[in-house]
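Intended use. Records like the one below are meant for learning the mapping from a protein sequence to its folded structure. Do not use them to infer anything beyond what is encoded.
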Amino acid sequence: MSTGSESERSHSRSDRGLGRKSKKDKKDKKGDKDEDKLDRLMAMCGGIQTNVGGLTTQIGTLQTSMGSLQSTLETFKGETNEKFKTLSGKYDTLEQKVDQQAEELKQLKQERQKDVEMGGTRVDFVENPYSAKGKGKDKTPYIHPSKRRAIVIRGFKRDSIQDVVEEATKEMTKEFGGIVSIKAPGKLCSYCKVIFEDSDAMWGLLKGMKGKKFKYDGQNLIHEIEKTEEERTISIRTSIAVNELRKYAIEKQLCTEETKKTFIDGDWNVGYAYVVKAGAAIRLVERNRKTQQWGITSEAANAIEGFNFDDLVEKLNEPK
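Structure written out for the chain above:
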């Protein structure tokens, strides 16, 4: 019984010894695995350090590039600012010129508008009833004399000095308002042009001078609304007809110097001359509106006997 028990104890000790050895072996294997893991981690850390070194180098290179780029940008910014200042100055100068030209254009339009407007509507633009028709000439806007805004003062001595005429005109018209310009046509002249703000200002002077005449150097001057070239031609030729008829009537004692204006008269706007007999007016010569030619009326020969109307009409129809 005792032998059996010892044998069992011996086996038991042997088994415990094997058990301890087995646990030791397991611990050793586990330690080996941990060392392997640690080695691998150390290797990974070494690789990471290498990568970090590479990245640090790259970052340094990038920082150098960024510094160079920033320096280039600063240089470009400085050059651009200078160019911008130069361009801004040129733009401001150009803008001022444009504004000035726009203002001048606006004033010019306003001046031209005053020539043709009354009450905000273009009632003054009508076809000139005395203009040439059917001769290839363009029809131009016609402003009725009552809506114009300029007068002409005539009667200064021939070849008067421009400055002298203008100063004399300024002095004569200083009591009237609305005058914007006084201008003689040349360095040597015999008349002066006065321009008003509008037709109302012009009529203010005409009404103020009704029955009166401007005087200069002891001579009476003639003032009248500015006429077109065609109107001036009609007026001049009407004067020729009236003056020659009056001269003949005085010579033949049909009238006197005092009565000539009521005996022979004319219409300087339309273009005709007439005589007054027994309270009735008889036309003698007149301008045809369609042909623009002067002609003798059928009553002329009997109204003024002995007068050479043919010579007069020939003179009136001479080219300009």
